[in-house]
From TrEMBL:
InterPro entries: AAA+_ATPase, ABC_transporter-like_ATP-bd, ABC_transporter-like_CS, ABC_transporter_ATP-bind, P-loop_NTPase
Keyword Ubl conjugation attributed: no
Family according to the record: Belongs to the ABC transporter superfamily.
Any GO MF annotation of the entry: ATP binding
Protein name per Swiss-Prot or TrEMBL: ABC transporter ATP-binding protein
Any single Pfam family the record assigns to this protein: ABC_tran
Coiled-coil residues: none
Organism taxonomic ancestry: Bacteria, Pseudomonadati, Pseudomonadota, Alphaproteobacteria, Hyphomicrobiales
Entry keyword set: ATP-binding, Nucleotide-binding, Transport
PROSITE patterns to which the protein is assigned, alphabetical: ABC_TRANSPORTER_1, ABC_TRANSPORTER_2
Native species: Chelativorans salis
Source organism superkingdom: Bacteria
């Protein structure tokens, strides 16, 4: 299944937030979106998922969802959004209950996604007993449970410390290698973008326009061993962004 964004422009009141954004997320592709603070990345993701209607242009999905997909477009947020009174298994179960999946099938799906996210031993734990990394694994397991065609990930690792972030990136790569999900992945972290992205869409400061799309034709599995090349790519993305980020920073301090 493909996500296609065509000529998306958007404004809030008198503020232009996005301008003429077009790109596609192909089947099994992770496309990262980076750009200075406030350039409209989260807005773009909300438009991609149909939570918000763009002022101009359109967000389309093309192709067939995977068999058994309960929710073709599924979000993963930075703040995990878990119910504190439900166990790990209970949190995953909730989305399946919402779809009326019967108990036996629900249990099978929960066992499968908890095993894929290395959470089987924590099925009965409550969120407050878990570290931030484990909570985000639960959020990922919950997203996988609905067999999404495309995951819309908004800074999923940014609340985590750098070591946990590394571990979660390894997990995401392992999950992707097992079942090539498609994702539109918003991040501030350029190391994350070059580690995970097949392409990186670099946005300008607000109103966000596409400055450049950087292609990374390097298998995800090889990336940890090719750190020098990745670092070069990261520098390249930063060179594209530097002036934009500086200007965005000034704009924000002007308002303050
Ligand atoms: N619902 C809304 N109503 C009015 N303005 C909004 C709304 N949502 C976002 N904005 C404004 O739109 C601009 C883009 O916001 P958005 O959160 O999409 O940017 P972002 O690139 O994700 O930011 P950050 O990098 O800080 O997370 C900002 O100026 C923000 O204040």
């Amino acid at each position: 299944m493909q996500l296609i964004l065509q000529g998306i422009s958007h404004r809030y009141g008198g503020t232009n937030v996005l301008e003429d954004i077009s790109f596609a997320v192909g089947d099994g592709e992770i496309v990262c979106i980076v750009g200075p603070s406030g350039c409209g990345k989260s807005t773009l993701l909300r438009i991609a998922g149909g939570l918000e209607r763009p002022g101009e242009g359109e967000a389309l999905i093309a192709g067939k969802a995977p068999e058994g997909s309960l929710n073709p477009l599924t979000y993963i947020f930075q703040d995990f959004a878990l119910l504190p009174w439900r166990t790990v298994a209970g949190n995953v179960s909730l989305v399946l209950e919402d779809h009326g999946i019967e108990t036996k099938r629900r249990r099978a799906i929960i066992d499968d996604v908890l095993s894929r996210t290395n959470l089987s031993d924590f099925a009965h734990a409550l969120p407050r007993q878990l570290s931030g990394g484990m909570k985000q694994r639960v959020a990922i397991a919950r997203a996988l449970a609905v067999k999404p065609a495309i995951m819309l990930m908004d800074e999923p690792l940014s609340a985590l410390d750098s070591q946990t972030r590394e571990l979660l990136m390894d997990d995401l790569v392992a999950l992707w290698q097992r079942e090539r999900f498609s994702a539109c992945y918003v991040t501030h972290n350029l190391a994350e973008a070059v580690r995970l992205g097949r392409r990186i869409v670099v946005l300008s400061r607000r109103p966000g326009r596409i400055r450049e799309v950087v292609d990374i034709d390097m298998p995800l599995a090889e990336r940890p061993e090719r750190l020098v090349e990745l670092e070069k790519l990261q520098r390249r993305v930063w060179e594209i962004m530097r002036e934009e980020a500086r200007e965005a920073d000034r704009e924000i301090s002007d308002v303050a």
